[in-house]
Write a structure and sequence with these properties.
8 helices, about 0% strand, BTB domain-containing protein, calmodulin binding, SKP1/BTB/POZ_sf
């Protein structure tokens, strides 16, 4: 992979980032490459679905990726019923109840802020 040594053209780099975005995010976090980390967050965030959001949220938390975390939480809030039916959510609920509680608490807090803002 010639992404970092400049052997790829612009379009090829974007293709590789799309293809390997999760792995590159982990590497960008570990080796502290902020521009690549932002690029990967955008690539991963652009293809979020209710079926992938739980795993991506965990990845965002592990890699300290706040933009990706925010996109995940927005999708969770918007599509919670669909997310709740996924295997990933059931796995999270059964194996990491603290993370489930954290997600539910964040959704509740966001809903409270939204409700307060609307009542003003």
């Amino acid at each position: 992979m010639g992404i970092l040594d400049g052997r790829h053209g612009e379009g090829e780099v974007e293709e590789d980032v799309e293809k390997y975005a999760e792995q590159l995010l982990v590497l960008a976090h570990a080796y502290r490459v902020p521009w690549l980390k932002l690029w990967c967050q955008e690539a991963i965030g652009s293809r979020l679905t209710p079926g992938t959001v739980v795993d991506v949220l965990q990845l965002a938390d592990l890699c300290d990726a706040p933009q990706l975390h925010l996109r995940c939480m927005r999708l969770l809030a918007k599509e919670f019923r669909a997310v709740e039916r996924t295997e990933a959510w059931r796995f999270l609920r059964d194996n990491d109840p603290w993370q489930e509680l954290d997600v539910l608490r964040q959704l509740h807090d966001a809903d409270m802020v939204r409700t307060e803002a609307l009542s003003r």
